């Protein structure tokens, strides 16, 4: 029988639309202003902190919806922004410098809906408000680190092949090795040219020197790796520290854009980004004279560093391992219930640690935490000059030959061990970065953008609704139902997708989708009218109308979808926001305007003897 859907197909349409409506529902509950309290420098909020916060709020007669402790952080919800701002000022003053007090927005999704994965759409910076930073990567420091690694690798290679040398030191974009004999020079040249094909290796027989210089291609690879790795690490750290849906992307040759939607506290956002440091493992110089070193007479192969309490130690200059090789880090306790950090390395790091510790069993090894602080000055090439600040966080004796897995003890408290594990797990920056520009979008401006964007969508929907009702009568009502279902599905899918963020251009994509969705129905309905004018029966006209228009609708939508996918692949920021809503809208509109409307038309008019069709 013509124009009769099987029951399963009708039920499929109903179930899909119902699921879309279910997961779009969290967007109706809105968000509450909140204050988030997080520990700094290894301190964690606990039940005692929770009780203190409640007491401070009660003392100042501030009404709050709830105050809860989750994952070492405390979240206090309020009914209005006035109480939120007062609470932030009070808690910031009362809690001191051990805690960070940040403004935030938290969704009011019911627990039963959250339990099945229902969450509201993530709003971009232009809609929710938040902070945006432009950060600059110090490329020269990335090259310097590469040269230091070359020095260490050259020494290891020459020693493993028992080739004697006088010294290995850094030079301009490369390394210079000085030998005592021509035979050693020639053996080293053969070895290094074979192992380092991306370096320009030259020798000078008269001076018994070998110079290895990085090619322009190698320098380009180092710069590209530095910025890509920094992007990955910053994204990991922001995610680890609990900022929802951050945007971290490259801009130009040495800049990174970071957008943190919903974060209203610039100081808190800066603290998150400034938690980007590196780590190194060095042997302690047990033979050096610490007293002389404190007087300024430091041995040539050693450096003098201090721990967080100011206690000095003499360490070897040679770095055994850097944090670049750490793949995982977890805090825990040793057999004496002392806090420790369990570290896992990649294969290259495991090999380096194994070679470095096999001949140093019983000797102390220091874990050095390094931060790069901008001085506000720039070098001749325009790069920001950084001050390198180094601090010993632990010194432990090497008990046995270490490999891909080992542990660090002496972190102090469990909270400090947890904080160290978090930073190590997120990774070490390849090159230091600094904030060169910051921008704050207030929540009030974001709310205004949401209101205006919503009004634009409703206006477009309303005008199309009226036109379809007037021009296509009952079939226009069916098309309007499909249009409403299309909007519901877009919102539901955007709410479900973990990486989808609604931006102001994204709202423009939804408005465009409204027009495209109804365009498919216009093609179908006009074809049905044409079939009726040619003398076809009502059922034949409906059948031919949908079948004949289907290929045209597919062609038009697929070509637009290809363009949207390309925009998403190569675009950034606002372009991506527009492309993602347009792509989702195209797919959902093809479902609702073709399959959805036909299910309704078949249910009402299909398989019946009709003399006239309300179209």
From TrEMBL:
Residue intervals of the Protein translocase subunit SecDF P1 domain: 227-285
Subunit field text: Forms a complex with SecF. Part of the essential Sec protein translocation apparatus which comprises SecA, SecYEG and auxiliary proteins SecDF-YajC and YidC.
Keyword annotations: Cell membrane, Membrane, Protein transport, Translocation, Transmembrane, Transmembrane helix, Transport
GN (gene name): secD
Topological relation to the membrane, as annotated: Multi-pass membrane protein
Protein name in the entry: Protein translocase subunit SecD
Ranges for domain Protein export membrane protein SecD/SecF C-terminal: 434-596
Similarity comment: Belongs to the SecD/SecF family. SecD subfamily.
Subcellular localization, as worded in the UniProt entry: Cell membrane
Its job: Part of the Sec protein translocase complex. Interacts with the SecYEG preprotein conducting channel. SecDF uses the proton motive force (PMF) to complete protein translocation after the ATP-dependent function of SecA.
Pfam family, one: SecD_SecF_C
Domain of life: Bacteria
Domain annotation SecDF P1 head subdomain: ranges: 306-431
């Amino acid at each position: 029988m013509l124009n009769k859907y099987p029951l399963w197909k009708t039920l499929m349409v109903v179930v899909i639309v119902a699921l879309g409506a279910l997961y779009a529902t969290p967007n109706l509950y809105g968000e509450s202003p909140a204050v988030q309290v997080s520990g700094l420098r290894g301190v964690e909020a606990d039940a005692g902190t929770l009780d203190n916060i409640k007491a401070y709020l009660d003392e100042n007669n501030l009404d709050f919806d709830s105050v809860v402790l989750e994952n070492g952080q405390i979240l206090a919800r309020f009914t209005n922004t006035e109480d939120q701002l007062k609470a932030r000022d009070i808690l910031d003053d009362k809690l001191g410098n051990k805690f960070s007090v940040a403004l935030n927005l938290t969704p009011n999704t019911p627990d039963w809906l959250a339990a099945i994965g229902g969450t509201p759409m993530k709003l971009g910076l232009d809609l929710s408000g938040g902070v945006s930073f432009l950060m600059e990567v110090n490329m020269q420091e990335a090259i310097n680190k590469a040269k230091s690694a070359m020095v260490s690798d050259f020494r290891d290679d020459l020693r493993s092949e028992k080739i004697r040398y006088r010294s290995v030191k850094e030079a301009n974009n490369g390394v210079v090795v000085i030998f005592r004999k021509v035979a050693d020079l020639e053996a080293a040249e053969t070895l290094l040219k074979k192992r380092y094909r991306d370096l320009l290796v030259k020798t000078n027989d008269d001076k018994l020197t070998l110079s290895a210089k990085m090619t322009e291609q190698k320098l380009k690879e180092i710069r590209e790796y530095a910025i890509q790795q920094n992007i990955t690490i910053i994204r990991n750290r922001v995610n680890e520290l609990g900022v929802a849906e951050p945007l971290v992307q490259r801009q130009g040759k040495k800049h990174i854009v970071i957008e943190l939607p919903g974060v209203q506290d610039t100081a808190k956002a800066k603290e998150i980004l400034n938690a980007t440091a590196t780590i190194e493992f060095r042997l302690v110089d047990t033979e050096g004279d610490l007293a002389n070193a404190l007087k300024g007479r430091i041995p040539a192969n050693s450096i003098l560093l201090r721990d967080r309490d100011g206690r000095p130690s003499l360490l070897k200059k040679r770095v055994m391992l850097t944090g670049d090789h750490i793949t995982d880090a977890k805090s825990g306790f040793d057999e004496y219930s002392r806090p420790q950090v369990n570290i896992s390395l990649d294969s290259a790091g495991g090999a380096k640690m194994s070679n470095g510790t096999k001949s140093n069993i019983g000797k102390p090894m220091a874990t050095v935490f390094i931060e790069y602080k901008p001085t506000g000055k720039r070098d001749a090439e325009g790069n920001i000059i950084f001050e390198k600040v180094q601090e010993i966080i632990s010194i432990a004796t090497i008990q046995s030959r270490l490999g891909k897995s080992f542990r660090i003890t002496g972190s102090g408290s469990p909270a400090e061990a947890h904080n160290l594990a978090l930073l190590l797990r997120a990774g070490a920056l390849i090159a230091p970065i600094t904030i060169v520009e910051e921008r704050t979008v207030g929540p009030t401006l974001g709310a205004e953008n949401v209101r205006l964007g919503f009004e634009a969508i409703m206006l477009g929907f309303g005008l199309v609704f009226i036109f379809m009702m007037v021009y296509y009568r009952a079939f226009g009502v069916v098309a309007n139902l499909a249009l409403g279902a299309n909007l519901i599905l877009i919102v539901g899918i955007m709410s479900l997708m973990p990486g989808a963020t609604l931006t102001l251009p994204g709202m423009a994509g939804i408005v465009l989708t409204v027009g495209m969705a109804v365009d498919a129905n216009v093609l179908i309905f006009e074809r049905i009218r044409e079939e009726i004018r040619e003398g076809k029966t009502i059922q034949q006209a409906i059948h031919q109308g949908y079948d004949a228009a289907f290929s045209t609708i597919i062609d038009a939508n697929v070509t637009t979808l290809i363009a949207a996918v390309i925009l998403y692949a190569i675009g950034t920021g606002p372009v991506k926001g527009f492309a993602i809503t347009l792509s989702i809208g195209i797919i959902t509109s093809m479902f609702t305007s073709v399959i959805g409307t036909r299910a309704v038309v078949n249910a009402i008019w299909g398989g019946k003897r009709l003399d006239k069709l309300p179209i």
